[in-house]
Amino acid sequence: MSDMKKPAIGWIGIGKMGYPMIRRLIDAGYSIQATDNDPAGLDRARSAGASAAVSLQDVAARSDIVISMIPNDQALRAIVSGPRGLAGQLAGKIFVDMSTVSPTVSAEIATAIGSGAAYIRAPVSGSTETAEAGKLTVLASGPLGAFETCHDVFNVLAARQYYLGDGEQARYLKLVLNSLVAGSAALVAEALELGRAGGIEIGTLMDVLCDSVVASPLILYKRHAIETNSYAPAFTVNQMVKDTTLIAAAAAAKSVVMPMNDFVNSKFKAAASAGLGEEDFFVLARSP
């Protein structure tokens, strides 16, 4: 590697999650070669101390580890298998994708990259706030040696790292977690509606809920939004529509029946259709 202590990092995707993550790496002394389709995102990365790469090939050529944090399956396919993609450019390097994408497309990416490079699937659990604080959770699968090489990089970004196996296990576990997160939002929203209908003030509802056996870090984290009825997005309704759709597809591919996920998906789709797509996903719990 170009620096045995701190490998050069290529970064693709400087959105709401990507930007605070590269800032933490820069602050930790890593050299970042960044690229993004959005010029404004690239400007933000430069202002934080990253170097702007002129192309994906440039990112690969100047980096030891290439990391992507992109929005969906289509974007991952484009950056790897597209006409000017990374496939064929990563020999001897590690490619880490930290996005939430389908296991099926992730497996396609593994084939496209080939055996000359190491591919780590490393989706993260957390929000923009936990990204800023370096308290994400990394769920990783792929070659063990490559995961171990990335340990110090992940340690800057995350409070916890889990190595899960050499295939697509990380993709499935991220969908498992997001299924529970999405379902929690829908169930809390329904329960609070009953409480309000029974004449209980929202502050009292949340006091008891957060001091009960059903309290969770997620509910505690969303408590202020619920009590103030203010849903500035940490993770949007539209993103949850995407993820619950991925969950449904992954379940169908494995012949797993998930009617609760289908119901929750319909709730988020209805919220998006009602104009709430860019609100935080816990907007399901909003007061009338």
Automatic annotation (TrEMBL):
Presence of the UniProt keyword Chaperone in the record: no
Gene3D superfamilies found in the cross-reference section: N-(1-d-carboxylethyl)-l-norvaline Dehydrogenase, domain 2, NAD(P)-binding Rossmann-like Domain
UniProt-annotated catalytic positions: K174
Gene Ontology MF term list: NAD binding; NADP binding; oxidoreductase activity
Domain 3-hydroxyisobutyrate dehydrogenase-like NAD-binding: 171-284
Name by which UniProt lists this protein: 3-hydroxyisobutyrate dehydrogenase
Keywords: NAD, Oxidoreductase
Native organism taxonomy: Bacteria, Pseudomonadati, Pseudomonadota, Alphaproteobacteria, Hyphomicrobiales
Keyword Oxidoreductase found: yes
Species name: Chelatococcus asaccharovorans
Domain 6-phosphogluconate dehydrogenase NADP-binding: 9-165
PANTHER family, per the entry: CYTOKINE-LIKE NUCLEAR FACTOR N-PAC (PTHR43580:SF2), OXIDOREDUCTASE GLYR1-RELATED (PTHR43580)
InterPro entries: 6-PGluconate_DH-like_C_sf, 6PGD_dom2, 6PGDH_NADP-bd, HIBADH-like_NADP-bd, HIBADH-related, HIBADH-related_NP60_sf, NAD(P)-bd_dom_sf
